[in-house]
DNA sequence: ACCGTGTACAAGAGACTGCTTGTAAATATC
DNA sequence: GATATTTACAAGCAGTCTCTTGTACACGGT
């Protein structure tokens, strides 16, 4: 068994992540950096907002754990840190009586071992 | 509610749902009505907030489409409308396409449910 | 050292949020 | 009709959010 360790305490509360995502500008930023990392300036250039405003949005996303930052010279390169979306997945699976989450619950309460495996 | 959206544009669907969910009191309300419908008074009775404050939270959730309302005499019965979580699923699958398969993996390994703490 | 570029920090304006108290509307009961 | 119950509406206050302008800091090139 692999020890999968969660450091959820280091991650932001669900509030921070959900609120960070509840803004179209910020979702657009995440869209820009979800596949490539980008310097703040190039992100800001795609908006009609000022550079400072975009920097502040980046700050919110960073604080929610949704962005990783890498410094390269004077530039700061940002990329999506998708694992920070974990609280969103939790909220979704808690409130959506999906087939999948029902299955999960059934497995937890009934069998310690999976009945199926992939061919 | 007092903040009527007069001058700003109406909240887009993902915004309203994500913002509604970004509050612990409101998530608690959803938790209460996710399996049974409840009258507003019984919901309010579980909080230390005033009845009016809870009514306002209910209004936010209702406007986000997360609650259905059914009138029975003087009571109003609320229940979770889980399909309103669709925008959340979209956000999750856009930024973390692997999230659902990870949930499946969690099922297969019989991962125990993490403890949840809310105020 | 100087200057230009890239970026964040600082402070303030205006709108919004979440809460409170006060009140009104709708339904039920007498 | 009168009264109680249940709930939402209204207004106001303090704190927070998003944006702006102005500025400072860090690095790289000349």
Report on this model:
The structure is a homodimer of 119-residue chains. The first copy, chain A, has a single domain (11-110), classed as Orthogonal Bundle (Arc Repressor Mutant, subunit A), CATH 1.10.10.10. Chain A is mainly α. A three-stranded antiparallel sheet of chain A has the order 1-3-2. In chain A, helix 1 packs antiparallel against helix 4 (51-63). In chain A, 48% of the residues lie in helices and 12% in strands. Chains A and B meet through helix 1, helix 2, helix 5 and helix 6 of A and helix 1, helix 2, helix 5 and helix 6 of B. The structure holds a DNA duplex (30 and 30 nucleotides).
Specify the CATH architecture of chain A.
Orthogonal Bundle
The total of helices of chain A stands at 6
Instruction: Say what the CATH topology of chain A is.
Output: Arc Repressor Mutant, subunit A
Mean pLDDT of chain A equals: 81
Q: State the CATH class of chain A.
A: Mainly Alpha
CATH superfamily of chain A: Winged helix-like DNA-binding domain superfamily/Winged helix DNA-binding domain
| Interface with most residues | A-B, 40 and 39 residues
How far apart are the termini of chain A? 21 Å
